[in-house]
Structure formats: structure tokens, C-alpha cells
Backbone:
């Protein structure tokens, strides 16, 4: 059996070097716009999925995608 070693703790630097700050970094506007658009699309799909309940999931996604492209909720159509 190999001898076990114990870890000794060293005092951390007080200047904050190497310390991660709590929380997530702020998203850039491009990323936040993309996240918002994705959330809107997912919500739209969830609301309209019942129209295509007789289709397989893959075919539902295709049909919902076609509807989403022309939907007024789509941010690309907001212009």
C-alpha cells in the first residue's frame, strides 16, 4: 500500500488574482437577440404542435418550421 499524503492549504492572494467572479458574463446583444428569437420559436412550436399531432416528430418540425418562417411572431418578419 502506498503512503497517503495530505494536502496543505496555502493562504490565497488577497488582491483577487485568479478568483472567478460569481455569475455569468453579460451576453452580447447578438447572442441575446439570438436567444430571444430561439425562445420565441420554441414557444411558437409548442403552441402549434397540436395542429400536426398525426405526423411524426420530424415531420411536425418541418411543418412548424414552414409556418414559423411566415409567422408574425418571428423577429425576422417584424420589419
Residues:
Amino acid at each position: 500500500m502506498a503512503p497517503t499524503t495530505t494536502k496543505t492549504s496555502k493562504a490565497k492572494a488577497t488582491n483577487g488574482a485568479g478568483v472567478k467572479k460569481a455569475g455569468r458574463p453579460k451576453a452580447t446583444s447578438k447572442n441575446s437577440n439570438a436567444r430571444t428569437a430561439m425562445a420565441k420559436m420554441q414557444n411558437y412550436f409548442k403552441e402549434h404542435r397540436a395542429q400536426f399531432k398525426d405526423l411524426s416528430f420530424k415531420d411536425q418540425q418541418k411543418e412548424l418550421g414552414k409556418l414559423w418562417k411566415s409567422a408574425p411572431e418571428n423577429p425576422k418578419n417584424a420589419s
Notes: Residues 13 and 38 are 42 Å apart (CA to CA). The chain has a mean pLDDT of 82.
